[in-house]
Design a protein that fits this description.
- The chain is α+β, with helices and mostly antiparallel strands.
- The chain has two domains: about 240 residues, Orthogonal Bundle (Poly(a)-polymerase, middle domain), CATH 1.10.1410; about 110 residues, 2-Layer Sandwich (Beta Polymerase, domain 2).
- The strands form three sheets. Strands 1-2-5-4-3 form a five-stranded mixed β-sheet, with helices on both faces. Strands 9-8-10 form a three-stranded mixed β-sheet.
- Helix 2 runs parallel beside helix 11, helix 7 packs across helix 8 and helix 9 packs antiparallel against helix 11.
- The N terminus is likely disordered.
- Its cofactor is Mg(2+); Mn(2+).
Length: about 375
Amino acid sequence: MAANQERSDGGGGGDERISEQLVSQSNQVPQLSGRMRRWQVESRPEIDTFTPGLLALYESLKPSEEHKSKQNQLVDSLTKSVSKEWPDAQLHLYGSCANSFGTSHSDVDVCLEMETGTESTAEALLKLADVLRSDNFDNVEAITSARVPIVRMSDPASGFSCDICINNLFAVANTKLLKDYAQIDQRLLQLAFLVKHWAKLRGVNETYRGTLSSYAYVLMCINFLQLREPKILPCLQAMEQTFTMNVDGTECAYFDEVHHLQDFGADNKESIAELLWAFFHYWAFDHDYRRDVISVRMGNTISKQEKNWTTRVGNDRHLMCIEDPFETGHDLGRVVDRQTLRILREEFERAAGVLQYNDDPCVTLFEPYD
């Protein structure tokens, strides 16, 4: 997509573009130029009338049973192939395909947990690529120079593309954490699916272009629901540790008996329409980008100073800070630069404005950026 490139070349014209779109699309009150009026902190009175449309869209985005069946078919095929060479290896699905936040368009991410012996990860991946080619998987390619080295392939039987890594167990722990959060309150899944869909259509979910990953958006949604009053989600890492997984000397631990937490957010009656508007409004106007880091681990925001994320270090810019729950030195927003931060904030403003003023926000909100 060229969307971000076009926007990043636009100099200071972004606010005018957003303002023009809001005036033309939203039939809103006049003189909303530039940034929206910051004193507007409550959603429109009739916002709940848009909940049915948003929930219908959410239902349409959820993966089908056929999708899940084909995913299981691929896992079975991979298990058979891998066990020939590494009989003790364990195969873990991770990421969107396994954390409950994947759509029918999500590909499959697999982590092989195994002893590599004297082999390097790169050597093991090259051997894995040979094994998969011999078992008639298509388009097999070992990408050993990536931050997380992988074998990329496609499965002719299921039609899925698949990325396979070795011993990337932080990703496995993160996947379980997100899956457990998803079981506490259905509004998390609803919010995250809609935000991810919005980000994809608006061209702001591409880390290689300096915006945010799907994983980052899910963490933003979790933290946002931890911050609501009354709270909708707890902070699982601040509770009794019932699950522990040691990854490279780091203890990934939290309370995973989430069946005890089904009524945690019952005192908060906000609908998905209210929450979606409040999410965009928070990121447009309320989040302190200069000072704050969002932390699912703490269930709150913490200061950049506390993280020592006040200045750029190498390629990590720390302009929009999202702490990974277990790899706490990892800032999911590190790729965001000044141009793409402006773009993101313009898009958050646009989304909040559309939900606040548009006659048919369920359509306008998700209009593809072009």
